[in-house]
Amino acid sequence: LVKLAKKHGVVLRQSYARVGKFALIKHQRYAHAKQFKRANRQLKRLRTMLGAVIRDIARKIAGQPGLMQVFGLSLSLARRVRDQRQRERGKVYSLHAPEVECIGKGKAHKPYEFGVKVSVATTLKRSRGGQFVAHVKALPGNPYDGHTLATILPAIESSIGANLGKIVADAGYRGHNAPKDKTFKVHVAGYRRGLTKAVKRALRRRAAIEPVIGHLKTDHRMGRNFLAFAQGDANNAVLAAVGYNFSLLLNWLGLLCAFILAMLATTATPPLRPRIA
User: Fold this and answer.
1) What region does 9 belong to: left with phi over 0, alpha with psi -120 to 50, or beta?
2) What distance, in Å, lies between the first and last C-alpha atoms of the chain?
3) Distance CA 88, CA 69 (A)
4) Radius of gyration (C-alpha) of the chain in whole angstroms
5) Per-residue pLDDT tens for 23-50?
């Protein structure tokens, strides 16, 4: 806000640039030392400074439609940041990307991840070319995993042009809302009682999607999105899956070309004639 005001010539009563920086450093140090009363006191000071800057800018730009349009988004985000509290849904985690959400992973080494959920589906049986991605879609709003099957499964069938026979999902899809009128059955990992051997083998195959997700995040830029807004999240997920599938196709084509060149080399060289002494 202070930088934007300086850019557009709005003179503030006080910028709080120096004292705000020191208050932030103190808050971080107190929180690291587990002195939370002192840390909350500095956080309250920061919130007070932010409110003073918001009110000062709102007074200075009142009656100026051009400046009000320039400061509109920044002021609304600043008010959301000032008013948000702990354990509250819909918080702002990033000013340059307000659509970012906090996703609970449930893992001890990495309990939370910031971004947007993405649904990834692969074939249950591995093809000769590799484990291809059959469908991918960004899911803004941090929905429960099991409540996404009602829209994801029809989208998979429409994209591949065939009816699904068997769905294998992880434990996060318990209590799913898959369509009841379909012929397939959804098998969730962790439930093995009363299942046939074929279904148990399919449940063991579920872990094959984990390296696919890892390659999408590390090799094809799904781990960090550089495209703006929610539409950028959706495009980035699709482009990462397309790049992954193309890499598998290129690997297969490389092997095929190497085989063809080797066959041509063997047929082009004439056989050696034995020498007569």
Assistant:
1) left
2) 95
3) 29
4) 28
5) 999 999 999 999 999 999 999 999 999 9
